[in-house]
Specification:
36% of the residues lie in helices and 21% in strands. It is α/β, with parallel strands linked by helices. Strands 1-2-4-3-5-6-7-8 form an eight-stranded mixed sheet, sandwiched between helices. It has one domain: Rossmann fold. It is globular, with a radius of gyration of 16 Å.
């Protein structure tokens, strides 16, 4: 289903993106923001599933600046590699590359939403607060969100967190909820970090299904 496209950021950096198109014509675009594992099999499958649901989905390779073609799995060693690589990419660089993906879809006349997971979940929040052309955003267990909670989204946002996420304690989630009481924020009992990824040990099928249904309803409300 997917193809590769090339994006150009405002600073001239060129990066690749995985693109998945629905069978029928669509006016709804979705930028899918990766975890620290690159645009790997899971992120491609996420984009494919959104395409199946009628969205034109593009997943920019946000590590291309430091490691083109980066793609790993979920073993402890790979997690360490992902963290090391993520540390080499600044927030501004990642957002510039996200903006490039947004702009590319908007040039096709699409309304554009952003959805992100893990590192990408925090970037999706920052996209909603800082970037142009974002119609709505959905953030899954974004560790950056509590750090950026003083920033106000410029578009509708939905948040998902696992209640047993050791890297994002619930007290930090409650800080976000208190600062943004009108933002729909859902927590999932028993779910940990990465609960949406069916390739990880932390996968929680029930939480993933509930979050996905809420996400699709939200996206269709704001993009369709």
């Amino acid at each position: 289903m997917g193809t590769q496209m090339t994006l150009t950021a405002a600073d001239g950096h060129k990066l690749s993106a995985y693109r998945a198109d629905p069978e029928m014509a669509s006016k709804e675009g979705l930028v899918v923001l990766q975890e620290i594992f690159g645009v790997n099999k899971h992120i491609r499958s996420v984009a494919d599933r959104f395409a199946h649901d009628g969205f034109i989905a593009a997943a920019p390779a946000l590590f291309d600046r430091v490691s083109p073609g980066f793609e790993i799995g979920y073993s402890p060693d790979e997690v360490a590699r992902g963290r090391e690589t993520r540390a080499k990419v600044t927030l501004d660089e990642a957002l510039a590359d996200t903006q490039a993906a947004i702009d590319a879809l908007k040039e096709e006349g699409l309304k554009v939403g952003v959805v992100g997971y893990c590192w990408g979940g925090g970037l999706a929040w920052a996209a909603a607060t800082r970037l142009k052309g974002v119609t709505c955003a959905v953030c899954y267990y974004g560790g950056l969100i509590p750090e950026l909670a003083d920033e106000d989204p410029k578009c509708p946002v939905m948040l998902h967190f696992g209640e047993d996420d050791q890297s994002i304690p619930m007290d930090k989630v409650e800080v976000v909820r208190a600062k943004h009481p009108t933002v729909p924020l859902f927590t999932y009992p028993g779910a940990g970090h990465g609960f949406n990824c069916d390739l990880r040990g932390s996968y929680d099928a029930d939480a993933a299904a509930a979050a996905r249904q809420r996400t699709l309803t939200f996206l269709r409300e704001h993009l369709v």
